[in-house]
Amino acid sequence: MKITLISFVFLICAAQTIRSQEAGYLSDKHRPQFHFSPKKFWMNDPNGLIYHNGTYHLFFQHFPEKTVWGPMHWGHATSTDLLKWTEQPIALYPDKLGWIFSGSAVMDFDNTTGFGKNGKPPMIAIFTHHNDSLEKLKGNNHQYQSLAFSNDEGKTWTKYARNPVLKNPGIADFRDPKVMWYDAGKMWIMTLATKDRITFYASADLKNWKKQSEFGQAFGAHGGVWECPDLFQLPYGKGSKWVLLVSINPGGPNGGSVTQYFTGDFDGKTFKPTDTITRWMDYGPDNYAGVTFSNTGSRHILLGWMSNWQYANQVPTTEWRSAMTIPRELSLVNINQKAILVQKPVMEINRLQDPGKAIAVNAGVTELDLNSGLPGPSGLYRLSFDTEASTTVSVTLSNSKNQQVVIGFDPTRKEFFIDRTTSGAKGFSNEFFKRSVAPRISNAPKLRLDLIIDHASVELFADDGTTVMTAIFFPDEVFSKVMLQSPRMKTVTNVQIANLRSPWKAGD
Ligand code: FRU
Asked: What is the pLDDT of residues 382-404, one digit of tens each?
């Protein structure tokens, strides 16, 4: 290959941009290190999550002019390990049909759309066009579904000339298509949020869609509008079950935006729920619009937006706003004859985990200093321990400014909690500085807590991912102290803590 002077200069500039981006990430006290956040400006929902040829693609709701929500684009980032993301040029810009709202992406291996080129399957994005001018006319027809395709593995995109492919039938909230290939019926299925229910559509070519059925008007939680659904099948016992995720805003058990799920059967036409229970995927205040990657074989990997519409536009970051959750692997377990969704951090995170240390527990104390022996202050930790379901226990993250976040378990109420009441400078929101709770779902006599802490977030995977809570925080100084408290320290065992490395550190 001949490297011209111009391309040489371009390569040097590109390398420098990446280096200065890394330097900025390391010194920004609220910048998550191993959670994706946009370089600059606003981000909300993950979109078009797809794995292809060794690369994970994360598209996202993005307004590349301000740090508040506005005319939506699809931003783009790629990763080979789900943790170190490299931001790419914007994938989809608003056009005359509207802004680009949430949606999904699939590989069209059989070229059902005819968009493939030179024998290579196209990558297809299916998204909602949101027409702001039509919305103002209040005709209930301003959201409709459209396609775009890429013949270079997601780098550049062409919108389909005959968009939209699914017109609005007169429903104001008609959005967030999640499309999958339903092999048993050899057809594409679109799961669409339609105000207070889900509508399923089927298609042979992604261009012509036929309504199959509706689900949910009389099921689940309805404290807010239904958004960002997902439908997938997971192994369960000797067979399998379908899981339907539905985000709702507002109406969460701890206020604001949250994701509920249903388990049941799907036959290509209708979704039949197993029961009428309302299940919450993550009880914390900050996991919204989560959906799974497509084309990952038997792995089901979920990524959520780590914020809440109650305060997303006000959180105190300056150049950028919002991050995604840690990617989580999903499975189902049977607890009391109910199928319960389990989330575990993807095993790729082990690569970022320093050897860490096991903490010797002195049964005679009520407080243990967990991180004083670790190199630090890192503010990035993975920490886990076992105890008994009858033990009161908490972990306190704190700094020298008397700011703290407390994560723990209250056995009298059988509740986990995250308390961020005094987690940082107040004033940006009345909703933020609160204590959130989650019921314990497992009934095992042993209790296990696994915590993943980045500069500005904690994710609690309790009882091996059966009860999950995610919360963000914005301390004025990194939480450099980690203490474990319990009046029954003798029941606390297997205490482990490790620093997590920032993937932006030189040499990674
Ligand atoms: C969910 C959501 C989606 C919509 C997008 C707009 O957070 O409201 O329903 O497509 O955000 O940015």
From this structure: 999 999 999 999 999 999 999 99
- What pLDDT digit, counting tens, does each position of 411-460 carry? 999 999 999 999 999 999 999 999 999 999 999 999 999 999 999 999 99
> What is the 3-state secondary structure of 346-387?
CHHHHHHECCCEECCCCCCCCEEECCCCCCCCCCCEEEEEEE
Short-list 62, 152, 139, CA closest to 101: 62
Pick the atom of ligand 1 nearest to 227's CA: 9
**Using a 6 Å cutoff on CB, does residue 45 contact ligand 1?**
yes
Q: Is the CB of 176 under 6 A from ligand 1?
A: yes
Angle at 299 (CA atoms; ends 298, 302), nearest 5 degrees: 140
**Is there a contact between 263 and 242 (Cβ–Cβ < 8 Å)?**
yes
Cα–ligand 1 centroid distance for 261 (angstroms): 18
Calculate how far, in angstroms, residue 308's C-alpha sits from the geometric centre of ligand 1. 12
Q: Report CA(351)–ligand 1 centroid distance (Å).
A: 33
Helix (H, G, I), strand (E, B) or coil at 265: strand
Q: Say what the alpha-carbon torsion angle 276, 281, 283, 288 is, to the nearest 10 degrees.
A: -120
Q: How do residues 453-506 score in pLDDT, each as one tens digit?
A: 999 999 999 999 999 999 999 999 999 999 999 999 999 999 999 999 998 876
Catalytic residue (one of 45, 176, 282, 454):
45
Q: How many Å lie between the centroid of ligand 1 and the Cα of residue 420?
A: 26
C-alpha 161/C-alpha 36 separation (Å) is 32
pLDDT of residue 15: 45
Please say if the pLDDT value at position 260 is more than 90: yes
CA–CA gap between residue 360 and residue 466 (Å, rounded): 27
pTM of the model: 0.95
Kindly state the average pLDDT of the residues 174-180.
Answer: 99
Residues 6+ apart with CB under 8 A from 508: 84, 501, 502
Ligand 1 close to Cβ of residue 44 (< 6 A): yes
Instruction: Please state, rounded to an integer, the average pLDDT across all residues of the chain.
Output: 94
Question: What tokens were used for 412?
Answer: 């009298």
Flag whether pLDDT at 189 surpasses 80: yes
- The strands making up 55-63's β-sheet, listed across from edge to edge, are 86-92, 73-79, 55-63, 41-52, 320-321
Which among 93, 175, 90 has a CA at the least distance from the CA of 127?
Answer: 175
In 93-208, beta strands by DSSP E = 99-107, 123-130, 143-150, 158-159, 174-182, 187-194, 197-203
Ligand 1 atom nearest to 305, measured from its CA = 7
* Residue 263 amino acid letter: T
H-run or E-run covering 25: helix 5-27
Are the C-beta atoms of residues 380 and 33 closer than 8 Å to each other? yes
Q: Is 45 a catalytic residue?
A: yes
